[in-house]
Amino acid sequence: MRACLGSIGHHTDYRAFIQLGASRYDKDGQIFGEVTQADVEDNL
Fold first, then answer.
1. CA 15 to each of CA 2, 11, 19: distance values in angstroms, whole numbers, following the listed order
2. The dihedral of CA 10, 2, 37, 17: what is its sign?
3. pTM of this prediction exceeds 0.70
4. How many CA within 13 A on the CB side of residue 29?
5. Would you give per-residue pLDDT tens digits along the chain (44 residues)?
6. 3-state secondary structure 11-33
7. What are the residues whose beta carbons fall under 8 Å from the beta carbon of 9, sequence distance 6 or more?
8. pLDDT at site 6
9. Whole-Å CA distances, 1 to 6, 7, 11, 17
């Protein structure tokens, strides 16, 4: 599972859709937090 999520997280299409303030979800589909400015900058 980690390898799968890791490959998705590094895919340019996934990274292009990260938006400030968007909800983050845990593995159970529950809201876990928000995308922060640091998250956005880290994905540039």
1. 17, 6, 9
2. positive
3. no
4. 0
5. 666 656 655 666 767 778 899 999 988 999 999 999 998 888 77
6. CHHHHHCCCCCCEEECCCCCEEE
7. 15
8. 60
9. 8, 10, 16, 21
